Structure formats: C-alpha cells, structure tokens
Amino acid sequence: MDAVTPEAARLAGVTNSKPTREEAEEAVRTLIAWAGDDPAREGLIDTPKRVVKAWSEWFSGYEADPMAALGKTFEDVQGYDDMVMLTNIDVESHCEHHLAPILGVAHVAYLPRKAVVGISKIARVVEIFSKRMQTQETMTAQIADALTEAMQPLGVAVLIDAKHQCMTTRGVHHPNVSTITTTFTGEFKTDPALKDRFIRMVERA
Ligand SMILES: Nc1nc2c(ncn2[C@@H]2O[C@H](COP(=O)(O)OP(=O)(O)OP(=O)(O)O)[C@@H](O)[C@H]2O)c(=O)[nH]1
Ligand SMILES: [Zn+2]
C-alpha cells in the first residue's frame, strides 16, 4: 500500500500523505507491548513486518477503483434481457468499529437495460469494497451503486450474509449470529415477483 489513490483519499476524507511503512510497523510494536508482550522477543521480532504486509492485503480495496473494474461493458448479448445473478461471492472484510473480520457471502443480481459486464468483474467489485474498513450496510449499498453507475441497469439486488467476529468472538459473544443486509433498486424494488425470484435463488444457493 504505497500510494493513496484519489478514490481512497476521497473515501477516507484525507488529502495528506499516509504514514510510512516503518511508522506502521512501530504502531504494531506499540500494540504488542500494550497487549502485554515483548515486541523484541524472538518470536515477535518480525511480526510488525508481517502485520503490515497482511494489512496491505486486507485493505487492498483502497488502492483499487471499482469503476475501472467495471469499465468494460458488452451490449452484444443476442437480446438477453433477464436477470443475471452471481451467488456465494466470498466476502472477507473488516468492521470499521473494531477492525475485526466480517466473513460471509454476497449474492448479486441485476436486470440489464442494454449493457452487461464480465461476470468476474462483479466478484471484483465485491472484493474491492470488502477489502476496506466497512459496515455491512455501506458495503451492500456501495456494490449496488457501482453496478448502477457502470451499467444503468433496470435494477440491482445485493444481499450480504455475514458473521462479524466483533460479535462472535468478543463483546456480546453470540457465535451463531449472522447479519443479513439487502439493497434493492429499480425493478427489484417495484416488482415483488422479481424480488421473490432473487430471494428464492438465494435460498437455493
Ligand atoms: N450496523 C452495523 N453495526 C456494526 C457493524 N459491524 C460492527 N457493528 C456494531 O458496531 C457497534 C459499535 O458499538 P460500540 O458500543 O461503539 O462499541 P463496543 O463497546 O465495542 O460494543 P460491543 O460490540 O457491543 O461490545 C456494535 O454494536 C457492533 O456490533 C456493521 O457492519 N453494521
Ligand atoms: Zn465490529
């Protein structure tokens, strides 16, 4: 994570440069000491380096632009005009309140107006938004917004079903609770039969 993209800066509301890798590693040493261990002991000596590297994977979504991922659309689909749906897209995110993992799946559908996108790009968009500090509600809405902006479809449906480790491994400690969030736009909002079809597909996914 060496550069802050304009997209990331806008989202974070910052324009100043980010801390150096060395400063980030020093912050990890501080947290290790605060937790009660010795950051200088052999087993922990390389941990700050590893943690910073892991963070650049877990938060790689600040570097990526979802609209660039959705930049290429196709119109030659032989008149195909029904719902396109991807189920069980893995979601590996972190809650913005505790930086604890959010693990689950996203189900995403859209009703094309004209343009469609490569199906892998939908999974990429889920990944880009999930690899940021998030709330599940924001992530759900952002995925729907990005697809709407890129394709101007007749409607979008997004359902995320996830477990928040801030709730399952600490705090209120309910290990079995799942959180489900949905965003429906356009015809998914106005046509109950279409929304029902989406829900039924999710149930059998
Ligand atoms: N709405 C929403 N809440 C979330 C999400 N991720 C975590 N939270 C909640 O954010 C809240 C933060 O509450 P606070 O009272 O500020 O923090 P806390 O003292 O750590 O709360 P507890 O988790 O209840 O121990 C908690 O209720 C979390 O369950 C999310 O994606 N969406
Ligand atoms: Zn949390």
TrEMBL record:
The keyword Transcription regulation does not apply. Residues 25-202 form the GTP cyclohydrolase I domain. Pathway: Cofactor biosynthesis; 7,8-dihydroneopterin triphosphate biosynthesis; 7,8-dihydroneopterin triphosphate from GTP: step 1/1. SUPFAM superfamilies: Tetrahydrobiopterin biosynthesis enzymes-like (SSF55620). Its EC number is 3.5.4.16. Zn(2+) binds at residues 95, 98, 166. GO terms for cellular component: cytoplasm. Keywords: GTP-binding, Hydrolase, Metal-binding, Nucleotide-binding, One-carbon metabolism, Zinc. It catalyses: GTP + H2O = 7,8-dihydroneopterin 3'-triphosphate + formate + H(+). GO terms for biological process: one-carbon metabolic process; tetrahydrobiopterin biosynthetic process; tetrahydrofolate biosynthetic process. One of its GO terms (molecular function) is GTP cyclohydrolase I activity. Pfam families: GTP_cyclohydroI (PF01227). It comes from the Bacteria. Homopolymer. PANTHER family: GTP CYCLOHYDROLASE 1, GTP CYCLOHYDROLASE I. Belongs to the GTP cyclohydrolase I family. This is GTP cyclohydrolase 1. It comes from Maricaulis virginensis. The lineage of its organism: Bacteria, Pseudomonadati, Pseudomonadota, Alphaproteobacteria, Maricaulales.
